[in-house]
Amino acid sequence: MQRTLRIGTRESQLAVWQATQVQQLLQQNGYTAELVYIKSEGDIDLQTPLYAMGVQGVFTRSLDIALLGKKIDIAVHSMKDVPTQLPEGIVQSAVLKRASYKDLLVHKGDFDTKISDPQSQILIATSSIRRKAQWLHRYPTHTIENLRGNVNTRLQKVADSNWTGAIFAAAGLERINLRPENSFELDWMLPAPAQGAIMVVCRNNDKESWEACRNFNDEDAALCVKIERDFLKTLMGGCSTPISALAQIENGKVVFKGNIVATDGSAKVEVEKQATVDSAADLGVTAAEEILKNGAADIVAKMKVN
Description:
The chain is α/β, with parallel strands linked by helices and 306 residues long. The protein is 35% helix and 24% strand. The chain has three domains: 5-98 and 197-217, 3-Layer(aba) Sandwich (D-Maltodextrin-Binding Protein, domain 2); 103-185, Periplasmic binding protein-like II (D-Maltodextrin-Binding Protein, domain 2, 3-Layer(aba) Sandwich), CATH 3.40.190.10; 232-305, Double Stranded RNA Binding Domain. The chain contains ten helices and 13 strands. The chain has a five-stranded mixed sheet, sandwiched between helices. Helix 9 (219-235) runs parallel beside helix 10 (283-305). The radius of gyration is 19 Å and the shape is globular. InterPro entries: HemC, Porphobilin_deaminase_cofac_BS, Porphobilin_deaminase_N, Porphobilinogen_deaminase_C, Porphobilinogen_deaminase_C_sf. Belongs to the HMBS family. Its EC number is 2.5.1.61.
């Protein structure tokens, strides 16, 4: 008799939405599945800035422990939160079709007027060191405030605060129909590696769970996020770093853009490369090696000292 697959998820509305998508995909392929709710460190401590928490795995570690302890069979993650090195005994089983990779700004209105007025005090909220670095590189006189909590909590904090605006992942708001009208996409901001992608993992010796999830693995999305995560891993390896990457498939080619920005926004090094889909497996690594030679190594070295 086929067993019921237990899907581990965080308790936030967005995490549950993502896990429910996986549950439905499993059911469409003839499997029965149930959700198991687990709190993460990132959900419990909502005050400490993510970059001060040793953020690698802060949203995934509790699920990994439950998976290795056989309390669940599958874990569902926002892929940008997953460390580039998975824990021993855990393997990637699927990447879902990717949603929007973009960042967007939720603002209080009249943003263009405020930002063009040199006398305006602009306060932008985010917990992401990547978003902070890119924003300060573009707007060095602005002030960045820390913003923690799930999507719903963060939106409420913006409404209740004196902030000019706050930066969110478009996919997170759009998936649960919470994107406000007073928001716009930051087309100039390069995303976190794997932003907008959902990753499913299982134990490496659980053949049934792995095969169940392979039914809905999106090969194009899996290739692009692999390239982006390879770029991140080759540069520094942590998701709490101001490193951005985007790989997209266009006309049979993978087009890659990546950058690293000093945490105070004072310097930025960029790279653009492309390769055919068939030869793109190492594109993230070669792009990282190129950017390291062109100045990124200095930014990485300063971050390691600090």
